[in-house]
Design goal:
The complex is a heterodimer of chains A (about 625) and B (about 140). By secondary structure, chain A is an alpha+beta fold. The longest helix of chain A has about 35 residues, at about 595-630. Chain A contains 23 helices and 18 strands. In chain A, the strands form 6 sheets. Chain A has a 5-stranded antiparallel beta sheet. A 5-stranded antiparallel beta sheet of chain A has the order 12-11-13-14-15, with helices on one face. In chain A, strands 1-6 form a two-stranded antiparallel ribbon. Chain A is flat, with a radius of gyration of 31 Å. In chain A, strand 2 and strand 3 (about 115) form a beta hairpin. Chain B has one domain (about 1-130). The longest helix of chain B is centred in the middle third of the chain and has 27 residues, at about 70-95. The two termini of chain B are about 15 Å apart. The chains are: A alpha+beta (about 625), B mainly alpha (about 140). The interface of A and B includes residues 585 and 617 of A.
Chain lengths: ~625, ~140
Amino acid sequence: MNNKHQYFNLINRSLILAIGILLSHPLEDALGQNYRTDSHSTYTHVISLYDSDGLLIDYKDKFSAEPYSPTMTCGKCHDTEKIHHGWHFNALYGNHSGREGEPWIWTDPKTFTQIPITYRDWIGSFKPSNFGLSQWQMMQQFGRHMPGQIAQKSDLNSPEPGINRTHITGNLEVDCMMCHSHSNRYNPDEWAKQVANENFKWAPTAALGLATILGETKDAPIDYDPEFDEFGDSGVSMPTTKYDQNKFEANGRVFFDVVRMPKNESCYQCHTNHSVDEKSPERYHRDLDVHIQAGMNCSDCHRHGLDHQVSRNYVGESQNHPNLKNDTLTCQQCHIGDQSGSPSELAGRLGAPIAKHKGIPPIHFDRLTCTACHSGPWPEQSQFKVQTSMAHSLGLAKEDRSPDDLPHIIEPVFVENKDGQIEPRRMFWPSYWAVIEADSIKPLPIDKMDSLAKWLKPIVADEEGSSSHKTFHKMTEAQLKTGLAKLQNTLSDSQKAAYVDGVTIHQLNNDVLESKKDSSLNTYSWALAHDVRPAGQSLGVRGCVDCHSVDAPFFFSDVKNQSLYENSEIISTPMTQLQNIDHTQTINFAKSFTFRSLFKALLIGCTILLSLLVIIYFSKWLFKLTQALHNE
Amino acid sequence: MNKLLSIITFISIAILAISGLQAVWFTDKPLTGIPLTIHCVVAPVAAIAFVFWSIIHVGRHSQRIGPSSKERLNRFSFWGMLTLAIPMILTIVLCMFPIFNPAQQKSLIHWHYYTSLGLTILAVIFILTRTKSPA
């Protein structure tokens, strides 16, 4: 970088700061004051851009202009501090985890690893620190599908493990425009590229198309400090921000095409679910969620106030989030409601068709969630392989996508939830290398993975020669043994190397591979709610036998473990076991439905005969009574 | 034959009463699992047996009777059972057709409970007040 320009830039920035303080720019007066219009119409945002220090950006500077900071720019009028505690950004605060949701899944095909990690208190998941991951590494790995930093650096009370390069990459700030951009010009793919290049601070500017970012911080050594290299003496080249001058108006302001309620496409960027199963129809045959097809937006139901506590709308959510009052946005409340309740409890909100559920016994509504019959793919004897945006980077252009990409997730699996209701879920089997010490199984820290990868020498072969379509090959026994032996050599005598394969743990005992089920291990599953199928395509529409027949997948399909190890024992779990119901009893009950029509006919026949008896003898008695009265 | 039919009828009514009422009285949950299976298996047997038993006995209970209160009570319980059996069966059969929504079905199930409770009490009274057939 040109030293002369750096020098002038420093002077310029100092001058701007001084002038800013002296003159007090009118907008800066508004900092934290919550400017608002309170109108249903969208406010036209023609605004000045500020960098992360709160300084007005000199967009004409082609050499050292800073990228814009959403926190400082949007924060001039909006309470970003409050917003940053919203659901999408508050995982680290940990006190409002709610129902188990989709975790981040660290995957590595070279080490046959797929492990659920999240800052939230979700049963079966690991904290990033358990895996040796810092906040910064979480950003580097998953920032591609994150609307910004999950917490501010200062929120950490204790030193965390892993790598922290924030002083070079800058913070991956909460980017308001990721959700609130009305224009398709916002480019999530560009965001992901900037994250991959470790240009955290530059990602919002690049994604919005305000500037071209040249360079990357990825190659800067970790001991590099840009603060002490203002003139580029170290030879390290930091990214430069070249603003598109056409985007700026004569007064130096930029039009931000902001929408208050995010578009569905913005939500889909991180919340798409894509079936990759051979059984699934082609994409053009599939329907989207019935609500979307009806013209609704995700944000019509998933609402929030300024605090950005987006409602997830599961039953009982308000118990997890005392500040939320979203029980009126559940499936039941819109489609069934309480017709004798208060006006806010009436069904039919947003024009929702009121569900009649004629002929469905009431017990179904005690034991099943709405989603059990209405959501996800229609159940079959085997489940469907599914990929998600967060787990498989959907939404980002890749030429080597494969149905075998890790993690291997299946749906729908019908599981009894904490409230005793059966709900459909997505499920996967965590697989990871671990260290056993004093009967405690701890996942191997991430910094040991590189060595493992070298030892395992995985086969990730090209399919059909020149094709770039890659096929995942499961771990062989030789690889597993090698991995365990080499890993053991790095451990102390009190530690034992192991590979966790779903609910099975593999260990080496005198060079002999031992595999056993461990009751402390479990699958990870989370409730699926979308895509919702309409009433005409819900379970039970063809009658009770949709579920109450001896071959109905809802009760009588098996869930097979999805192992990454080729010799893994196939463990079939009956769906009834996951539903916590008696298999034999359920199958006997299903058999009884063979005679249901006969049963109904018989009972109707009995009712007719009994009615005839009563009518005949009542008539006789009435006749005798009238005769007696006549004779008297 | 008559005796066998009476035994089948009243034993099946007893089984239905125990399997059905225990859910309401002791579990406070809807009828499910093994009790439901027993209830569903015995129900058609009880219905058929009750219809035949009624046809056989209806003649006797339509004849002029003596002034004994036991006899009157016996006759009252017979006709009461016969009358209550109709709504008792109807309330549950109607639930099996796509006519009523779950809230309405809950009402029907309540009526099924009350009518079957009444029928059970009348069945007990009938047994306690029974007299030997003149035949």
